[in-house]
Amino acid sequence: MNTFKFNSISVGLIVLFLGISFPGYAQQRENLYKLYEQNQLQALEESVKRLPPAAESDYEGLFFQTLFVKDGEQAEQKYLAIFEHGSPRLKLLAAEKLMAYFYAAGYYVTSEKYQKYIVEHEIPETAEPQTPAKQELAPPKYYIQVGAFGLAENAKQRVSFLKTQDVKSQLVERNVNGKTLYCVWIDGKTDLDKSLEYANKIKQKYDLEFQIMKK
User: Fold this and answer.
1) At 149, is the secondary structure helix, strand, or coil?
2) Phi, psi of 182 (to 5 degrees)
């Protein structure tokens, strides 16, 4: 066994031991997720700097460290590895990064592949009420989210702007990690592919980042 593999395995075992033996280790990783989800990038970067180099199998550590890799192609390869081998939670996060990377690079078909994965595997925020067995299940409805704001006034301004462009939208309140976000939703189309096509047209025309939501 060569030295590199031995060191990687050793670090991996240490990480596993720490995760089992010290609850503080798991809490530290959970705090990193919270900082990321709350978009507190400066605090997240400071926390990531204190992490040891990620072991070969430590995809959580690899994800957080890759967030601050400036080389786009290098970051892409790391996100691909995370998407391939990471936990379901990490696969979703890596898919978001890969979707944005390939869209920016002009690979729209590849970008849409990851967008579809996100929509199809996104964990619902709240459990939906059980539908009686005798009732026919309604097809999912798609929405195009073109903004998520901490202030309702900012969301209202986005809705007003879209109204001037004859694009009908609505303000929707969502609770994400205990924080209220004021989101702007545009009705999607009858299926995911058509909703993605419509969302890309909106992005190209108005330069608005989007996320497909499913209800």
Assistant:
1) strand
2) -105, 105
Query: What is the C-alpha separation between 136 and 83, in angstroms, rounded?
Result: 35
20-23, Cβ contacts within 8 angstroms, sequence gap of 24 or more: none
151-163 tens-digit pLDDT: 999 999 999 999 9
Spatial CA neighbour of 98 closest among 109, 83, 88: 83
How would you list the strands of the sheet with 142-149, edge to edge?
169-176, 179-187, 142-149, 211-214
Mean of pLDDT values over 92-107 = 84
- CA 98 to CA 104: how far, in whole Å? 10
How many other C-beta atoms are found inside a 10 Å radius of the C-beta of residue 70? 6
> pLDDT tens digits for 166-184?
999 999 998 866 778 899 9
Q: Which residues contact 3 (CB under 8 A, 6 or more apart)?
A: none
3-state secondary structure of 145: strand
Question: Residue 172's closest CA among 160, 155, 188?
Answer: 155
CB 194 within 8 A of CB 144: no
| Angstrom distance (rounded) from CA 112 to CA 76 | 16
| Strand 211-214 versus strand 142-149 pairing type | antiparallel
Would you state the structure tokens that stand for residue 138, as one six-digit string? 């309604």
End-to-end Cα, the chain, rounded Å: 51
Q: Which domains does the chain have, with CATH numbers?
A: 3-121 (1.25.40), 142-214 (3.30.70.1070)
